[in-house]
Amino acid sequence: MLARVAFVFLIGFQYYIVAESAAGRFRPLVSDDPYAASLYTLHNLAKSAVFSVFCVIAWMCIFRTKAVTTGPAYSYKLTAVFFAVWALLLFNLSFLSDDWDATLTTALRAKYISASFLLTAFAVLTLFVLVPKEAIRNFDRQTIGVAVIGFLAYAAHQNYATWFGTVFRRLIEDTTLNLSVWFHSFLSPITPEISFDDRGIPVLSDASFAISLNPPCAGYQGMFTSLALLLSYVLFFHRNLHLARSLAPVIAAIGAVFMMNSVRIAVLFEIGVRYSPEIAVEGFHSNFGTLSVFLVVAAAMVTLNMAFFRKTALAEGPIASAGQAVYPTNERGSFKIPPDTLWQMAPLALMLVTMLVAGLFVGTFNWLYPVPIVVGTIAAANLWPRIRATFPETVTLHATAMGVLIYVVWIAMVPRDLECAEMIVEGLQQAPVWAVLGWIFFRIVGSGIIVPILEELAFRGGVMGLCKEAFGLYLPPKATVALALIVSSVAFGLMHSTVLAAAIAGLGYGLIALHRSKIGDAIIAHAVTNLLIAGHVLVLFDWSLW
Hints:
Blueprint: H1 2-21, H2 23-26, H3 34-63, H4 76-94, H5 106-130, H6 133-137, H7 141-187, E1 193-196, E2 202-205, E3 210-212, H8 220-236, H9 243-274, H10 277-304, H11 341-359, H12 370-382, H13 384-389, H14 397-413, H15 418-429, H16 433-471, H17 477-494, H18 499-516, H19 519-540
Antiparallel strand pairs: 1-2, 2-3
Helix pairs in contact: 1-3, 3-5, 3-7, 4-5, 7-9, 8-9, 8-10, 9-10, 10-11, 11-12, 11-16, 12-16, 14-18, 14-19, 16-17, 16-19, 17-18, 18-19
């Protein structure tokens, strides 16, 4: 199983290097010369074949696992030929000219043709190395359909990418503009003035406020994020779900995110015109999009758990003792949700949602920071017996030392934001003493106690437990633990603005959690780090760290 997964990642990496890096070297062939155009088309078809094979292998690894071998299907000789073709292909590409004015000589034509045929050979050998002959002979219609769709989709992307992109963007962005104006009509009888800047980007304006509807405002990020999350969920539980029926909630969620984005623009404009441009830009604009995607995706996942979309109930995993950071590997061959996942992840999710809701009403200075901290504290208090059980009976120096080490790494890696620091200082100087002291108190308690508890429960408990259960179906125990540690650390990093530093911190906390299989050790290390950062801020006035 490990060899199969490794091979799939390897093929994807090789596809990226070979197919995509070759694109720029073939574009000079597009000209009025029919022969040159035909060579470019041949190259695109060869790349489409590579992508088609990769789609088939990914499909079979997910849905036809018994049809894919755990290693080379025939012999090491075939595998050697496979890598030889790959090396020869890279060698061939290195001699192709990337000069747009290059003369299409006979030798250069021969290299272009050979590169295209080597790409095709690379695709065919990939299929034969990973999939046994019997499985290839018995391809069902679904597998063949995946191959054809992958081939046609990539060919269309290569030859008509500009046309598709223009039509798609115009449809999405024009619809967003029209829907935003329509939704705004329910909020105010005054119709915003629509104009276009030098780049052709629409601008909604009033006498006192204006917003520019740049392409990111059309909701692409939210739609693709919701699509990725929901498709991942469906793939995770595909054995329990009716796949055809499951597409309906996924499509509906994407449509809902798109509609909510238009609502966001309409409300944003109204807040900026009638109430506060600062709150509109700094608060509502920054938080409503994330909040709406979160709620829509959550609603879609709840919908997918309804009986109509399920084949069987989503099974629960083996019972683990409270506080275990490492869950036992599932030996039954099907994914099961660890039993502690919900209560470990729910408090952080609740606090984050509260933070986003509170963020809708703040400007440059977040005076409402105590609100999500209070909510997180209440959630932690209600679950305190379970949380207490995650701590070890004796506290060692390992957790404290890791917390100090990560503090040093954090101070060294996180860049300082002078503008952010100035805004915090300005906000504190304008407030009464009691408000300043209260805000600082909640910052210390929140970052030093509540946040470490909730984040470690969620990432070193819930996320790592889910990864252990999922990867344990395909990988040996040590590889499963290592990959779960990496994935949970990367996820932890992505939740922070300083991704790399946070991912390294997550890796350290994960190692401490795995040391004695106690999440409490990671909580202690995280708390030490954040309390040291709080002291650093208050002593050295390095406010940008907050």
